[in-house]
Amino acid sequence: MAAADEDDIHDLSSEDEDYSYEDDVSDNDTTLPGSISGRRGQYSKRKSRNVDLIPLMEGEGRSLRVLGFNQAQRAVFLQTLNRYGFQNYDWKEYLPRLKVKSVEEIQRYAQLVMAHLVDETDDAEHFSDGVPREGLRTDETLLRIANITLIEEKVLGKHLQNNDS
Length: 165
Prior knowledge:
Elements (H helix, E strand, L loop, with lengths): L2 H11 L7 H4 L11 H13 L8 E2 L6 E2 L4 H14 L18 H15 L20 H27 L1
Antiparallel strand pairs: 1-2
Protein name: CHD subfamily II SANT-like domain-containing protein
GO molecular function, one term: DNA binding
InterPro entries: CHD_II_SANT-like
């Protein structure tokens, strides 16, 4: 990863300092975020929520949400993607890092990221659907995912060879 990429990711991840649990609680959630029962209730509401009703983009500037993901959550998603790839699409590495998101929300956002990775607007500030690029370098991300996949296949091949012996 180039130094400029690390700076971009660091700039995005520095938003974590501004992140608060209350930002992710929906406006109509009446449970207290600090209580254990309130968290369980909030998580179950999130999991039962229809992700198709979440708009592509809402808000602007620092409060921009893309498919319900704020800037800090988008940065965490991209960091996880660059570290683990898509992990056979089971999202096991993404769930602990995006605790307030359901599997369905992560999967829907991942589909959007995959579409952005094959988008032909490399020099534009926005993807063809209007979502800001936010420092995502598609060629480098695709190369990183390819390397992760090759390593996983090689490790799996070695594991299978050892089991056959």
